[in-house]
Structure formats: C-alpha cells, structure tokens
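S.,

Sequence below, as promised.
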Amino acid sequence: MKNLKNNSLRKGLHYAVGAMLFTVIAASCQKNGTSDIDLKSHKRTVIDYVLDHETMYLVKYKFQYNNKYQVTKVFRGERYAEDFQLQLIAESHYDPKNNTELPDSVSTFNTKGFKSGVILAQDFTPVVEEEKGASYTWPTRNNKLLTVAGGKFALAVAGKKVDWAGTGHMGSGSTINMMHFLKYLNRPNLRDSIQLYVQHKTDGTKRNFDDFRIKFNPSGYPIDMGFYDAINADYEQLKINYREE
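The prediction came back faster than expected:
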C-alpha cells in the first residue's frame, strides 16, 4: 500500500510539473510573439546612404545612427563600395541632453584619418520647417526628407566644405563640398521639378534656368534628382537610399 501511495504521489507530482512547464512555455511563446509585433511596429525609416555628384562621379555618403536615431558618423567612398571600404568623413557630437536630430558640432576628417576641421551648430545650413497638415496637390508634395531619420542632419551639413585632400576622382581637389546637390531639397515642399537661376547655361541657350527633375518612391520620399537641358537628359546628380530598422 505504501508503494502504491508513493507511486501515486510521484505521478501527481509529474503531472503538476508538466502542467507548470506547459503554462510557462505557452506564456513565453505568447510574450515573444507580442514582443516581435511591438518591435516591428517601432521600425523606422532612416536614410541609408546618399549618392551625390562630384566632378564626373556619384560618390557615396553612408550614415550611421545611435539608439536615438541621431546620425553619429558619415562615411564616404565609391558608389559601389562595400561598407568596409568607406572612409570616415564626419563624426557628430551630441550633448547627453540633446535629443534633437542636429548635433552640437561635427568633426570632419581627411583621407589620412586625421581630424581636418569642425562644423559648429551655428555654421549649419538652416533647415526649413515642414508644412504640417498641408494636403498633397500634384505636382507639389510635402518634403518627407524632413520627417525621416537623418534627413535634417543631411540638409544641415549639405554643401559644407571639408578638407579632404584626396587624390584622383575620389579626392576632388584639396576640399570637397559634402553632399552638395542635396541642399537643393532643403524646401518645405517639393515639386517634381526644380528650376534654378543661373548666369551661364551649359547648353549655350539664353534660358536662365537649369532644370532638375525629382523622382519619388511609392511612400513619397525623394529618391533621385536628374539634370536636364538641351544637351543633357536625366543626368544623375543625387540619389537617396532608405532602409527600415
């Protein structure tokens, strides 16, 4: 009788432990599932890299972010270069209390990896304010570059001179204007084309405007800007690639 009681107790204990394990596993699965959904819902669109026209080439500017989605570093290199082949050109400095997209200052570096200058906050290009609540009326749309992580930073430093001192086409002389053509998108809203006043036309005509056509992705983010005149048709000046993270 004693053995029967012990066996019954052991069986009961096994069932109880099994039920507890099943409950824990089920709860764990449910928690992980919920966690995964939460992670997906918090994904953000960020600028991955910018391709900007310099001399005869499109040059890549790759962005790196911290956990606040502030741009911490910018790397520069060939259009088709892998990440490890890019060189550091800019590093942002944020005060711990600074939760904005714009840093307190930006250190710039040359091809040798040495610090070559500093861009202070007061030297940033003023970034335009986005038009909130404005409805889309073709061909004008809100500039979604102002709402994406990295957008305001990119516009603030676009066209700033950096002592790069490289050689060959990647050097562009002793200094470069970082992401020069991106500054043309520093507008509260964007049309499918931009006309810029110029004194000297590349095609020899008397028109006083250069034309830039903008292309957008299905989400409304600007992704491409090409140059047009009597000689050039969709001559690439700027490309922006985005990613979800």
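The first strand starts at residue 45 and ends at 54.

Coffee later?
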